[in-house]
Amino acid sequence: MSHKLASALLAALFLAISSLAGAHAEQRAPATNAAATLSPDEARRALETLQDDQKRAQMIDTLRAIANVSGQQQPASSAPEQKSPIPLSADGLGAQLLLTVSEQIGEISGEIASAARTLTHFPAFYYWIVRTANDPAAYNLLIEIAWKLALVLGCALSAEWVIFRLIRRPVAFLEGRVPQTAHLPAQATLVADPPSSVADVTPAPELHKRRHSLMRIWQVLLRLPFVLGRLVLELLPVFVFVGIATALLGTEIGEPTTVRLVILAVGNAYAFSRGLICVVRALVGPFGLLPVRAETAAYIEIWARRIVAVGVSGIAFANVALLLGLHRAGYAALLRMVMLVVHLFIVVIILQCRRQVAEAIRAPAERPGIAARLRNRIAGGWHYLAIALDLALWAVWALNIRNGYALLLQYFVGTIVVALITRIAIMLTLGLIDRGFRIKPEILQRFPGLEIRANRYLPLLRKIVSGVIAFIGFVAVLEVWGVDAIVWFYGGQIGSRLISAVVTIGIAVFIAAAIWEISNALLDRQINALSRDGHYARAARLRTFQPMLRTALLCVIAAVVGLTALSEIGVNVAPLLAGAGIVGIAIGFGSQKLVQDLITGLFLLLENTVQVGDNVSVSGLSGVVENVSIRTIRLRAGDGAVHIVPFSAVTTITNASRGAGNASVSVNVAYKEDTDRAGQILKDIVDEMRREGDFRALIRGDLELWGVDKVDGAMVSIVGQIRCTEAGRWPVQREFNRRMKQRFQQNGIEVASATQTILMQIAPPADNAATLTPRRAAG
């Protein structure tokens, strides 16, 4: 059994027992008061004392002295008041709620303990077993009962077996003649005239169902004589068993009376069990009055045998024990336990068949409407109601409650009606809420984020409304069960104060949510307005501040709502505020590094040093700023790694995203090349790039050629820069370098190598002087 089912079962059983036991206690109260009346002699003596002046004066003095002594002893006996460790005010809602709950739990636990003592008298059963085992007369009586019972049962069972063998062929004959189930054809129409259309041939569904029902009734009537004959034949061995046993008990075997009664109890239990099983087989089964599948018939027969065996044998054993001297209380306890086992068997059957019954109750998939949804809801939880009703029936019988079944019927029907009304109210209310949260297209165009924010609170609102309606339904159920729950919500009662506190807290939460959403909406709207007007720097700065502002606002709102809730339930918030201040001072002294992070981060943000999206270098780490909190800065490096740097470790920040990013130009050409010609080629490259659409917005000016920066015997260095935007520095510089290489190759300009080339002339031999050529050596 699942936890959910177990909780529902215990709740139903608990409420049924407590409410019915309360009614039972109220009905027994007048009888108890009536029993506490004075006897005639006591009334006569009291009258004589009151009529005699001297005796009356003495009685008055005695009562006065007793009253004075008890009044003086009362303060001394009172225990010192203990203070609660929770700072609750004496008249606060929390204290009253705890007191009321504790009192209710004490009363209910007392009722449950009383009911348990009423149901369980197992010590009486134990004492009976011990007394019977130690009593020689009882032991001899048991021996006599045992051999006489074996004799009677042996003779009766033998006669039953003989009759059973004789009726096998007649039973088989009747089973072969039982009419089998005939299926109604899918289409059955009366053809009197040729059909004029397809609609004339198609039968109406209602007519088809009616014919099917009539056919089933006719089949049951045809099977009835054969089923009754088979039942009589199967009961014949049982009648023979009863007759033989009764005849034997009419002789000396049935003496004494106790022996005869014990054997009769056992024999009647066996005959009754056999008869019930025969009746079950006659009702359902392949040859029964109601034909079902063989698997279903076997399932019904198996559980019928279990229930009958436990119930009948348990009752028979209790009756035998009562005849042999068991106390009446032990007999009643034994009967209650036997019937509890039977009802638990029914619970098992309900759990095993819950899916099949649910499928039968559930509405078809194509059928919409409230009725279909109610059927689906009942199909999902019918077994909870069935189990609660089953155990409540056992509780009514076990507690012997007067008019218990009438009260149980009233409670059950009233609960079903209230549950249905509550469910309908919830569905209608939720439908209205869903319809109210549908935003018109023109409003969505004006406020794009309104639908997302509204849908964020829709599930919570649905749960709150459903909970409120369910609570009202629960109070109505308590009223149906006889609990005067409406009184709890009168003025000055705990219920009215609880509702007032819940409403106050709800209003505080609603105002807090409204402030939160309005603040976020204003921030988002301001950021969008700044971005739309071209104030990107201010928009980025506000976007950087947004997480910290939201965190601070959330902390303030949570603190205010929390203090309001604590104040409403009666908690004194002054000590909490004082303790929070002391804790804040302790944290400030104990975590100086954290305070340094907060202060440094606050000044960096106020001075607009970094913003989200900037390309910065912090503490030797470079990357794009993803988030700036009040304590740390988070960077996303070029390789995808994330660097989180606390502000206390920041000494220098290099920000490459402050509106300008210059692409540097530095090229080394060979010493022999014309530097003016090379510089003109570089300027032409920049002019060409500025005319292209991909680089026009990234380059802010022409090439600033600074000239020749360095000259040596191997190369000449030409330097300059291209003024770009902050986002165009690296794309422009990479594209410029690519085009510069191509142009130098096309124009034959040699880029100087990093290695130095030296020309050397070596003196040749005399015979090779005519063919002397210089050699180049790389150094």
Automatic annotation (TrEMBL):
<dbReference type="InterPro" id="IPR049278">
    <property type="entry name" value="MS_channel_C"/>
</dbReference>
<dbReference type="Pfam" id="PF25392">
    <property type="entry name" value="MS_channel_TM1"/>
</dbReference>
<dbReference type="InterPro" id="IPR049142">
    <property type="entry name" value="MS_channel_1st"/>
</dbReference>
<dbReference type="InterPro" id="IPR023408">
    <property type="entry name" value="MscS_beta-dom_sf"/>
</dbReference>
<comment type="similarity">
    <text>Belongs to the MscS (TC 1.A.23) family.</text>
</comment>
<keyword id="KW-0812">Transmembrane</keyword>
<keyword id="KW-1133">Transmembrane helix</keyword>
<feature type="signal peptide">
    <location>
        <begin position="1"/>
        <end position="23"/>
    </location>
</feature>
<feature type="transmembrane region" description="Helical">
    <location>
        <begin position="548"/>
        <end position="567"/>
    </location>
</feature>
<dbReference type="InterPro" id="IPR006685">
    <property type="entry name" value="MscS_channel_2nd"/>
</dbReference>
<dbReference type="Pfam" id="PF21088">
    <property type="entry name" value="MS_channel_1st"/>
</dbReference>
<keyword id="KW-0472">Membrane</keyword>
<dbReference type="InterPro" id="IPR057485">
    <property type="entry name" value="YbiO-like_TM1"/>
</dbReference>
<dbReference type="InterPro" id="IPR011014">
    <property type="entry name" value="MscS_channel_TM-2"/>
</dbReference>
<feature type="domain" description="Mechanosensitive ion channel MscS C-terminal">
    <location>
        <begin position="664"/>
        <end position="750"/>
    </location>
</feature>
<keyword id="KW-1003">Cell membrane</keyword>
<dbReference type="Pfam" id="PF00924">
    <property type="entry name" value="MS_channel_2nd"/>
</dbReference>
<feature type="transmembrane region" description="Helical">
    <location>
        <begin position="269"/>
        <end position="290"/>
    </location>
</feature>
<protein>
    <submittedName>
        <fullName>Mechanosensitive ion channel</fullName>
    </submittedName>
</protein>
<dbReference type="GO" id="GO:0005886">
    <property type="term" value="C:plasma membrane"/>
</dbReference>
<dbReference type="InterPro" id="IPR011066">
    <property type="entry name" value="MscS_channel_C_sf"/>
</dbReference>
<feature type="transmembrane region" description="Helical">
    <location>
        <begin position="464"/>
        <end position="491"/>
    </location>
</feature>
<dbReference type="Pfam" id="PF21082">
    <property type="entry name" value="MS_channel_3rd"/>
</dbReference>
<feature type="transmembrane region" description="Helical">
    <location>
        <begin position="497"/>
        <end position="516"/>
    </location>
</feature>
<dbReference type="InterPro" id="IPR010920">
    <property type="entry name" value="LSM_dom_sf"/>
</dbReference>
<feature type="domain" description="Moderate conductance mechanosensitive channel YbiO-like transmembrane helix 1">
    <location>
        <begin position="413"/>
        <end position="488"/>
    </location>
</feature>
<feature type="domain" description="Mechanosensitive ion channel transmembrane helices 2/3">
    <location>
        <begin position="554"/>
        <end position="592"/>
    </location>
</feature>
<feature type="transmembrane region" description="Helical">
    <location>
        <begin position="330"/>
        <end position="351"/>
    </location>
</feature>
<feature type="domain" description="Mechanosensitive ion channel MscS">
    <location>
        <begin position="594"/>
        <end position="658"/>
    </location>
</feature>
<feature type="transmembrane region" description="Helical">
    <location>
        <begin position="302"/>
        <end position="324"/>
    </location>
</feature>
<dbReference type="GO" id="GO:0008381">
    <property type="term" value="F:mechanosensitive monoatomic ion channel activity"/>
</dbReference>
<feature type="transmembrane region" description="Helical">
    <location>
        <begin position="382"/>
        <end position="399"/>
    </location>
</feature>
<dbReference type="InterPro" id="IPR045276">
    <property type="entry name" value="YbiO_bact"/>
</dbReference>
<keyword id="KW-0732">Signal</keyword>
<feature type="transmembrane region" description="Helical">
    <location>
        <begin position="411"/>
        <end position="433"/>
    </location>
</feature>
<feature type="transmembrane region" description="Helical">
    <location>
        <begin position="220"/>
        <end position="249"/>
    </location>
</feature>
<feature type="transmembrane region" description="Helical">
    <location>
        <begin position="573"/>
        <end position="590"/>
    </location>
</feature>
